[in-house]
Amino acid sequence: MSRTRLYRHGVLEAEGFPIGELSGRLRDDDTTVWVDLCGPSQADLAAIADELGLHELAVEDALHPHERPKLDRYDTHCFLSAYAVRLDPDSGRLSTFELSAFLTPRALVTVRADDRFDMAAVTARWDESRQLAGSGVGFLAHGLLDAVVDGHFEAVQALDDRIEHLEDLVFADHPDDRHVQRRALALRKSLVVLRRVVLPMREVVNGLMRHDLVDDRIMPYYHDVYDHVLRATEWTESLRETVATIRETQLGIQANRLNSIMKKVTGWAAVIAVPTAITGFYGQNVPYPGFEQPWGFWVSTAVIAVLSAGLYALFKRRDWL
């Protein structure tokens, strides 16, 4: 599947034309063309490469998945690789969608392995900023990067909300430690994946800002995207540290809770030891004051009760019980 657009003097003039007309439409120096290829074959990319003079290494990178986000420069064009992300609201798992783009002086070619990344968000940004279309390929590349980076920012914000909820679970009255551990591990994995795709975007955006494709008119908008990239990167790093802190806090709370339980068990053991010792001694059938007398029984019972109550009061005052 493919989509096409043609701008002339910054005005959208045509869209949906066949790729075979690409070279003919680019004969006019005042035109800028966008071509989107979804799930292309090697032959499809080879045809585009012949039309635009794309480097074979860039074409190979576009066909092979799992490239690192980057911006490669060649003599006649640039090759851009980036990842869009989406956070599953139920499982909290982060999904990534690879996106490649060829940037020539008058054409932008985007390549996607499938349709999980919705290009409608990109075209909507182009339509909302038609006054900037005169910047040509720089304008088209900005809309693409803006949509990708905004997706990164939304994912970071959603992960932040989940981590705040996780903090509440840690300090709950009756926390489910195993559930908290599983959620913390899942969030940490998502943050690791997000960091891998967000961190290199600083080099990508910064590299484009130093390229001739970006003119002075569109430059402030690239600065805005770059600022969003920095904020998303710093936010991701901060959340990774927060998750690690939550884990350490949970372990500390568990240790404190165990110490409290051990104090209570030890206190009750000391209280129970008093009547056990007295009745054990009397159980030796040796004469004692009040032996075989009713008042002897009551005296021993009173001694047990007073000593046990005294130990209970002492431990309670020291917060051991």
UniProtKB/TrEMBL annotation:
Q: Which UniProt keywords apply?
A: Cell membrane, Membrane, Transmembrane, Transmembrane helix, Transport
Give the Pfam families listed for this entry: CorA (PF01544)
InterPro entries membership: CorA_cytoplasmic_dom, CorA_TM1_TM2, MgTranspt_CorA/ZnTranspt_ZntB
Recorded GO molecular functions are: cobalt ion binding; cobalt ion transmembrane transporter activity; magnesium ion binding; magnesium ion transmembrane transporter activity
Q: What is its main location?
A: membrane
Q: Give start-end ranges for the coiled-coil region(s).
A: none
Where are the membrane-spanning stretches?
265-283, 295-315
Localization terms from the record: Cell membrane
Q: Which CDD domains match?
A: TmCorA-like (cd12822)
Tell me if Membrane is a UniProt keyword of this record: yes
Identify the GO cellular component terms for this protein.
plasma membrane
Q: Does the keyword Transport apply?
A: yes
Q: Classify the source by domain of life.
A: Bacteria
Topological type in the membrane: Multi-pass membrane protein
Q: Into which family does the record put it? A: Belongs to the CorA metal ion transporter (MIT) (TC 1.A.35) family.
Checking PANTHER family in the record gives:
CORA FAMILY METAL ION TRANSPORTER (EUROFUNG)
What protein is this chain from?
Answer: Magnesium transporter
The protein's organism comes out as Saccharothrix australiensis
Q: What is the lineage of its organism?
A: Bacteria, Bacillati, Actinomycetota, Actinomycetes, Pseudonocardiales
